[in-house]
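Standup notes, structure subgroup. Blocker cleared on the magnesium ion input:
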Amino acid sequence: MADLKHTSIQFLHGVGPARAKLLQQELGIVSYHDLLYYFPFRYLDRSVIHHINEITPQHAMVQLRGRFISFAVAGEGRRQRLQALFTDGTGTIEVVWFSRVNYIRRAYGTGKTYLLYGKPTLFNNHFNIVHPEVDAVTDDNPTPVGQGMQGVYSLTEKLHTHQVTSRTIFKLVSAVLQTPAAREVAETLPPDVMQRYRLMPLHEALRNMHCPADQQALQRAQFRLKFEELFFLQLNILRYIKGGVQRLKGHVFARVGHYFNGFYHNVLQWPLTGAQKRVIREIRHDMGSGKQMNRLLQGDVGSGKTIVAFMTALIALDNGFQACIMAPTEILAGQHLETIQQLARPIGVRVALLTGSTRKRERDAIHEGLMSGELQILIGTHALIEDNVKWRNLGLAIIDEQHRFGVAQRARLWHKNPVAPPHVLVMTATPIPRTLAMTVYGDLDVSVIDELPPGRKPVNTVMRTEDDRPAMYRFVGSQLRAGRQAYIVYPLIEENEKLDLHDLEQGYEQVQETFPHYRVAMVHGRMKPAEKDHQMALFASGQAHILVATTVIEVGVNVPNASVMVIENAERFGLSQLHQLRGRVGRGADQSYCILMSRHDLTRDTRHRLTVMTQTNDGFVVAEEDMKLRGPGDLEGTQQSGVAFNLRVANIAQDGQIVQLARDAAQAWLDHDPQLTTTWGAAMDRHLHELWDKQENWGLIS
Ligand code: ADP
Ligand code: MG
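Run returned:
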């Protein structure tokens, strides 16, 4: 590759200093290598040569082989045009140019053989072709690019005005492909991987990306390059992150003892779902393996992650260890405490809460309890990872709502036990598509709870506009009369916090006026935590019937009696956020409703987004749609994870299967060559360095 990377495109025929500079500025293309990796976004099929007498209006494009019979200039001034007659022996067809008349008149002659490629149009009962692509067929170039498919490249406005067309690029690429350096480009993947996955060799793949022999060759070329990209990505993740952690031994939790069994047999009210059982098995296996567990537990809102977390903690306790559960907000930590205390009390497990607002006295007692081992489960916020929090024997850390925590914070947890890092279970309700999860959180194994507890009815979701407001309020009223509670949520966009707050407060007043006989609570991010907690508590206890709120209630809040979620200005929310909000209702056995209030005049994307919500309750479907609409780069969490980077050919949203294959392949390689020290391993190691030297992000993780 070195050659290709260090040869400037200036050395190509037709590229002078000016053009080279233009290509660099507009497309970032400097070297032969850059050009080869500038892939087409679509293809023209030039594998077929048509006959003039067979052209029908159904032909979108035709390719003809023949000669020009005559040229004639017609019209004056701006209406001037060049008309030529072209024949292939089966008939004649008119070819027309409206610009560059003199140039074309000089460039093409009668008597020579040409390939014409263009769109036939019916004009006065005859077909003609306007501005076709023309290639001379010569003795040393008997089939000029003509056979097979040709890439079409995206270009900038400026390139167009400087007469650099898609075809110019194609010709330049073709020239590079002819060079020995391109033909002998070094293979980046080891032979066993190539064989196992039947991959097209790199040089062939590159050629077929630009001028594939046929559709099948194109697909194989794309597969090869996607695979390669994802393979190296996974190799890097698995090696630097997982590899690093795996070398750390983990505490062996071999026993399932009286805490776990006692809870399971005597306290748990309902049977676990199949998915919950499976996930607990996966976790038990990890924690018993002797290696440190790093597992991501994904489950849609309401899928019952809390109970899994708690039972996981019980296994730690059964083996003489302590556990902690970390939540992103005080509200959530408080809710966890409440839920878990209820579960823990009957089996005599001691639980406490530690947050930023825990009083000194209590804090001291907690510290003492942690050191003595008296305290078995600590629930809290970031306060848990502060340096002065010391444990007797922390064996398990559970992190709720992963996307609010960075990798660095997770790392701090590892140091909480001097003997070996605690096992880590990360729970998220942001349903990251599995493929993306593997790519982004490649250092974590993934478990999925893909089943809701029985008896849940899907939330009935509808779109409504301002005209429907009275009817909407009547509906909310009917639910309140039936003893249920309602959320009304307003967007809060930080750039304009004041205005948003104004919206919220106005909404609050309107709701109070509309429902004079009900109590209305309100929470927003600017409140003091104590006031927020008070308002939340009013709603959670049922003293308040309606909660007017910003998205602070987005994650985790659990009030099963709430049956209506009204989302104001729903068009201002992303899909995943809408889904999270909707997840606040439908947590009991009764029918729940989500009402998306929006403007009339929505863009197509926005309308699509809201429509998706009305059509599915499945968080994974929602997340996939979200990713299609926004692209994976925008997904919450990718930023912090620090692995956002450019993929040229692979698309995580669409290439899930290849991600899986590439991951398996990378893992298999590392199983026998963990340090990349074999000949091929070392070569791949060098390649990785080349690939990621530019991407500083990676340094942060490993
Ligand atoms: P999430 O995954 O969103 O954190 P929770 O753990 O809060 O979900 O569970 C949502 C609700 O479902 C809780 O009220 C919980 O008690 C209940 N639940 C969990 N698992 C089951 C089950 N297997 N059968 C019945 N109800 C369950
Ligand atoms: Mg939860």
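Discussed briefly. The chain has five domains: 1-47+147-183, 64-134, 258-449, 460-616, 646-701.
Next: hand off to the docking folks.
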